[in-house]
Amino acid sequence: MNNTLRSTGDWKPEPVAEQFIRTYLEEALRACPGAAGFADLLLDRVAIRLRDLLDYICFDDERLIPALKAAGWREKGVGHYGNPLGWFPDFVHRVGKQTIYFRVEFVEDFLSANGITAAIEGQQGGRFRQARIFEGTTHDFGVVERHGYAGVNPEPVSESLIRVAKTHQQAFRARRRQFDHPEQGFDYTDQLVEAAVRDLGKDWSCALFLRAEREYWMTRNRAGRVQKERQDALGIGWANQDHHTYDSSRTWFYRTIRVLETLGFECRELFYAGAGAGWGSQILEQPVLQSVIFADIDLAPEELGLDFAHQTNIAPLHPYRRAGLWCYLHGESMLEAGLNHLECMYDSKRFNSQFEELNIPMMAPFSDFPHLYQALTVGEWWPVDPNRIDHLVEEGHITAEMGENFKMHGAIGSHFENLERNDGFKGFNQPGIDDVLRIIDPRKQLVEG
């Protein structure tokens, strides 16, 4: 595990690098009408910017290297350059036609959805596939799918291992989530995850696990189902995902983190909201998938120096704060409740406009800066076990009136998030998140009348 924690304040907008990549992309699109037309279609149909899907770029002119380095890219392998300062695609020096590759969830789904015939490199069911799809005068464009693979060349995978991966994918999809006691659920989940990691390694297992998590979340979130169907119509899937958000009780937070670390996630930075806010969050990143987890927990002001991700004896706060109450009402995110929300990258204004046309209401944004925009859909209500509500009232976590409201109408459950990043900014807005978490506390979200 990487225990080097980075302050969220260390992430900064990187306008020089962003201008470099945008100029490069714009010039390539001018030279490739097919790709330019698809970029316009993405924006018009599903509010996705092609820039947010960029995966890696093959270039054949060594004269580009000094400009790359001046803009912040560094050599991470022979002829392979990455920019560690933010959300930017890699550049790979390779003799041949210059090609810009962007991410899709599955190459075959993309080709089918767009009526394109192209040769696919890589095995079906393997960890990496790609295809060149649009030909231009100076640059071609291609699509790439990754399942826990960081390279840029397909590596052979045995058919027997592909069958094993399919078995683990099904095990994650069919994962039992309801248990008499959370400890049983975490023990069971640990066994499934550890078995997958033994057979497939952390990175491939992580990709399969997160796909199953998103699928379960969609069964409980209409906004996510609607948007996924729209993105599938263009063959993109969830390729524009930014991060997944888990809620956990204090008692079982370390077990949630253990599952994620087994899958290769590393603790990246901490959020401490400060006095009165009542929450903290461990942000984790899977370095190969470049996938981020926001893991929320109740936290008291005097605990701001606590390594709560690995503490095994954190007693519940009384009364519960937002995450603790949500988990008691609905269950642990890692178990029966599922993700609190999924966040994906969009052109924020277009997304809001399109969701308005779909009659899916949005909350007011909790981040609205040139480099970062974040807004949640209005929460979807879930029914709650009356016995859980009675216990919360008896223990003084909620009032009797709140309890009756929850029994009659349910309590706020999951969201979908519209997120826009600019200038490669990888961080988050802690004050804004503090504000929105106060708003979506189930006690603040009661049905009137």
Rg over CA atoms, rounded to whole Å, is 22 Å
List the domain count as a whole number.
Answer: 2
Net shape = globular
Q: Find the count of extended strands (DSSP E, 2+ residues).
A: 17
Please summarize the sheet with the most strands. Answer: 9 strands, mixed
Low-confidence stretches: 1-9
Which structural class do the helices and strands define? alpha+beta
Report the CATH topology name of the largest domain.
2,3-Dihydroxybiphenyl 1,2-Dioxygenase, domain 1
Q: How much of the polypeptide forms β-strand, as a percent range?
A: 15-25%
Would you identify the CATH architecture of the largest domain? Roll
* CATH class type of the largest domain: Alpha Beta
- Rounded average pLDDT: 93
What features would you highlight for this structure?
449 residues; alpha+beta; 2,3-Dihydroxybiphenyl 1,2-Dioxygenase, domain 1; 2 domains; eight-stranded mixed β-sheet; 36% helix; disordered N terminus
